[in-house]
Amino acid sequence: QDKKVLGVALPNLTNPYYVAMKKSFEENGAKQGFEVRVLIADNDDAKQLSQVQTMIQQGVNAVALNCVSSGPCVASVSELNQAKVPVFTINLLPDPAGLKAENLKVEQAVQTDQKAGGVYIGKQLLKDIGADGKAVVGIVGEPTSVAANARDDGFKEALASNPNVKFVALVNGKVEETTSLKVTTEMLQGHPDITVVYSDTEPSALGAIAAIQQLGRDDVKLYAFVDKLGVKHIEDNSILKAGAIQEPAKLAQIQVENIKKFLNGEKLEPIIDSPPLLVNKDNAAETVDKAY
Amino acid sequence: MTDMTQLQPHEGKGIRIPAEAGIAFVLLVVMIAGAIASPNFLTLSNMFVLLLNGAVIGFLCLGQSFVLFTGGIDLSCGSVVAMTCVLAAVFMEYVGLPWPVAAVLVLGFGALAGALNGVIIDKTGVPPFIVTFAMMGVAASVPQIITGAESIRVMDFGYRFIGQFKLFGIPFPVIALAVAVVAAATFIKRTVTGTHIFAVGGNVEAARLAGVNTSRITILVYAISGFCGACGGLIYGSRLMTGYPTAGRGDELFFSIAGAVVGGVSLFGGIGSIWGAMIGATLIATISNLMNVLNVSAYWQPLVIGVIILVGVTFDTMRSSSRLSLPWVALLKRKFSASA
Amino acid sequence: MTDMTQLQPHEGKGIRIPAEAGIAFVLLVVMIAGAIASPNFLTLSNMFVLLLNGAVIGFLCLGQSFVLFTGGIDLSCGSVVAMTCVLAAVFMEYVGLPWPVAAVLVLGFGALAGALNGVIIDKTGVPPFIVTFAMMGVAASVPQIITGAESIRVMDFGYRFIGQFKLFGIPFPVIALAVAVVAAATFIKRTVTGTHIFAVGGNVEAARLAGVNTSRITILVYAISGFCGACGGLIYGSRLMTGYPTAGRGDELFFSIAGAVVGGVSLFGGIGSIWGAMIGATLIATISNLMNVLNVSAYWQPLVIGVIILVGVTFDTMRSSSRLSLPWVALLKRKFSASA
Amino acid sequence: MSSYKAEGITKSFSGVGVLHGIDFEVRPGTIHGLFGHNGAGKSTLLKILAGAQPQDDGVLTVDGGVVQLASPREALAQGIGCVYQELRLIPNLTVAENLFLGREVTLGGFKCTAEMKNYSKTLLASYGLNIDVTRTVKGLSHPEKQLIEVIANLEGKARFLFLDEPTTALDGNQSTELLAHVRRIALERNIGVVLVSHKLDEVLTVCDEATVLSGGRVVYYAAGTDVSKQAIVDAIVGDAHGKHIAAQREARAVGDVFLRVQGLAGKRLKGADIEARRGEVLGLYGLVGSGRTRFLRTLYGMEPVVAGTIEIAGKPYQPTNPKHAIGSGIAFLTEERKIDGFIPLMSSFQNVVLSTLIKYRRNGFVDIAGARAAAQRTLTSIGTRGRLDAPTKSLSGGNQQKVLLGRIIEQNANLVLLDEPTKGVDIGAKSDIYGIIRRLVDEGRCIVVVSSEEEELVEICDRIAIFQHGYCTTEPKPVGEWSLAKLREAAWAPAAA
Ligand SMILES: Nc1ncnc2c1ncn2[C@@H]1O[C@H](COP(=O)(O)OP(=O)(O)OP(=O)(O)O)[C@@H](O)[C@H]1O
Ligand SMILES: Nc1ncnc2c1ncn2[C@@H]1O[C@H](COP(=O)(O)OP(=O)(O)OP(=O)(O)O)[C@@H](O)[C@H]1O
Ligand SMILES: [Mg+2]
Ligand SMILES: [Mg+2]
Fold first, then answer.
1. Cα dihedral D474→D476→D481→D484 (10° resolution)
2. Which position among A241, B139, C166, D5 has the lowest Cβ density within 10 Å, counted as fewest Cβ atoms?
3. In what residue span(s) does the ABC transporter domain sit (chain D) (predicted)?
């Protein structure tokens, strides 16, 4: 009997996050007896739509969809609904208002609460400096992505209670080490008073570490979303003080297992939340294995 | 080259193979290979998907070809897609215009942005690369400034027509592109302005001396490119029912140039044809569709597309410089001259 | 033979202003504006940061200039950065070579990849755009295939030297770039091959007829560009102590071309200078540094950089076509001719 | 026995035969004149001899040994050099760099720039050229470029040197002197020279041997005192044109003043006062660089007017751009056809009708067949040979010139400005062109001709005016009052202003 085919649409492979997710999809898919087809949209919404259409052409049995961005992603869901291919969304979800307006159906959403990660990190920072301790914060973000902006919002929200925390700069690290290295150095040059750098993506964090190190700014602390390497840095307790980890592999695993269940006729929860984990120097040693 | 050469050669003997034949043959080979490799590839529905997904690059490549014919380059076409895609949503959602009005307005904006490129290039003598680079920046920033990172959901469902309507199963963007290509090819081949575009690209000084209004031609080709960019913006916007500021800012610019060059258009101006450029764009769209259909690993995709295109163009170049002769060409020739 | 022409005496008097003066002036203006806008901009440490961050683009622009001088284009330089960056890490971590050996090997690989471009272009006559497009794909895929898109951490700490060592406070990549630029400029100006590079760009057929070995020149310039790409790969790799497959695949390619064009290098070949290209690259690096130092919103950045460059180049073009005259130029001229 | 010999050379381009088994020989210390109609295959033969193009068949031997020339570089290494018909200087390199291109002087890997500069300076001075050798070639005048290219090759170490129409841009004096140089150098250094030209009189004075090609075959060969001009002319013109008859000149009724220029000055033009009448050919003569080209270009709107007035048919005319000039009934033939003459990749038909396409427009679309037929008619009437539907750049030099003349005829303009109209055109076609000029004039048009060939001016003009140092202030005199000597004398006279 033919294997069931699972289509996976991911935004890019330049972010190791999605590389980890892709691997997990492939491994867990194989374990559950799926033939897995992964398509990468290169951060292009229209390309993602066309890839979804290609999957429909190929007659996949289910699609796991990680949106490039939420708004345009609704169209992909719409296509899949029309073709009666069950959609499972992961990580970054399509715009709920758009889904509702077009009366579209997503079988199950496995989501990371982007904002929550930012909140955790913000709280940790607050703890580190004290309720009214001083901090001048510069953000290495990705202002052109809604998800990254949500992480920033969470971080700021958590710190809103402290009037002595000032946000002075926001630069675009483009989720990429070299860009982050460049813009972080430049941000620190422009605002020598910065004492805390917050990076909302894992690759940016690595660039920011190198930037702070190479400028010789021992006084600057980094808080960031981190991967395995980042967790090790936290363990070393040098520049990187605390962060949040996401678990792409786990998300993918949950999703694949649930898709299997769905295809076997089981009912599913509409939403599964998988909040990021907070890592600080206390739990870094245990957490390191969970990080991708 | 363009028009008059297509008339019967006066020697009479032998058939003349159009310059586009080589790359068309390559496309055919890729299609056949695709059909053999996957039963899902050469189906009518997948062909429509392929063409629909290639439509925006097709439009950009069409506009880009006009610019390349004159020896210029338009780096801003991708960003114009983004700008017009968001502007259309703004007009409908924030200003409240009905979708056809918004669409027409947006096409005007695209053409205007392009014309502005043309005017600056013509008046200042600054290289097109720089001028359109600046316009690329401007057109990329405008939608981001308007919307931030957010996208604007379009609720006017009539807007779907542009990107999602189908006539006898053929998606509307494909029909629109086909009409545009035929119109463009006719324009280039049959009108005075079409010949003048090639004259400017072939030798701008000579064209000026022969009485060609080079300023008008320059402004016109960039305006056409801007207009084509706006068509792309509307198609993306309507397919996704969203105005989003990253529309058209991926591979589109690059593929619009590559498609034309693959199809025999020279970056130095004065050489090539609309048909060639469109075959080139189709080739790129086909390879990229095929790779997804065959589930080629994302790691390998850049390599595969690069190598196929290199092999294809090398074959084409060698053929036309007759360092290589095709058996079927010789055969055809013999057949025709026998029957003549 | 007596003087039989009545051509106006070609002015020997007055000073000749180098072609690069215009864009250098623009750079100066941007610097001064930056200094006024932020006290943190025109500091020695920020200048080094600026140059260090611009070093990779500087290297790519240097290599690209050689290619552009001959009328070619190298789209693969950014991908070569990625490939070499990963290869260096592979050589050190997986093969276990000491870092200097790995570095030299990687430089060789870069030059080889470039030379391959050159050989294909020369032998097949396929446009450089297509050949280097294919190489871009290959060089982008190779590291992804090797590492599965993951990055390789380098543990040989000596490797830090390349990207992080400082001599009298000056980062090593900046020193290396400076040496390379001086060597390149001398090479272009003072050697026969340098002249031949411009001859090929000015009119390849004429150069061939004059006895220039055009094949050798073509292969050489692409090899140089590949070599410069490898320098970029080593710098990125060593600064982050990682080999990762996205290195150099952002704006680098684009800025390497834009820098050269801004500095007066023509995409059509035969025009421009190394110094001009380097000033152009510095201008771009400066604007991009300044925008981050001043914390210009990411949404506005493309617009700002585009507009500044357009205004700068327009000024430069108008000046050199003397549609515009600078007060200080007139002054200088008067002064010199008075003292003469 | 020392010589460069070609035997049984054949060559065809995309199936069309151009050379059909040519035997040809050059001996050191002699000058071999090569003649033939436009498209006869002279340039193609030279390119093959110089290694710039491979022959399809046939052998080349130097000193009895067979040579294979894969590129001009190899030919140069064997002491075989060539000046090609189309100028081959690199526009953005300096004069000195161009002079030494491919054979630079080096020391320890570096160029000896200063040495090459100094040498270039003295060299050019010895040819009477006062040019700053550090300037780029781009800004030089056409004759200067031609001189520099010839000089560069004379200076080389070549044992065999081929010159393809080296004097087309030069005036009578200049070409005589240049050819004298060639003669001297050939003898002094024992070089074998091949000289291609359509200016028979000029060349025959220095030739030792003569060969005429026609349709890719050798139809005439003679050496020493056997060389006869009349036989050469007959061989060139062949049966196609019948006997070459000296043009008949009859008195014409000259009309009223059509073009009136007063004190015209531009950035590079100092002052021109000229009147030309309907039904007259006005010749403009002067030394190279005296401002004739500038005058025509200013009239045509290619260069800005700074002062002065122009009237055409009594109405004031202010040139703005070429399009406007064409609209005002002016047609212009440029001096440098490769720079701003034809569009290289367009077919000859397209090039002919480029300015007049609008005439063939029906309902917004061009009547391609009609335009093509008209172009073909025009080109045939001036004896254009070659594949006219192929890119114009593949035509022979003289035929390219005819394509441009075809455009002028197509334009049907009232005021025709011709800058060196018969440059590179063979003697048969020349008389055809003179015939056309005469026909245009008989129709009551006004024609202004700039030429450096005094014989040409004297043959076709009704009146001739002299340019000096950018000025033209003296009244044109009827052609009867001019002779070749008088023309030169007037051009040399000290400036009037
Ligand atoms: N590259 C080419 N491609 C096609 N045809 C060519 C090419 N070069 C020359 N020809 C053709 O070969 C023929 C001979 O040309 P060639 O230039 O040798 O003539 P020529 O005797 O030098 O004439 P002219 O006196 O006008 O210079 C012409 O018909 C020309 O069209
Ligand atoms: N607009 C221009 N500005 C500067 N230089 C120019 C311009 N147009 C042409 N030139 C260059 O100046 C050269 C000298 O001018 P040109 O040959 O027109 O002189 P001329 O005095 O008219 O010559 P002749 O009397 O022999 O026709 C031209 O060949 C050309 O290379
Ligand atoms: Mg010739
Ligand atoms: Mg002249």
1. 80
2. C166
3. 4-240, 252-494
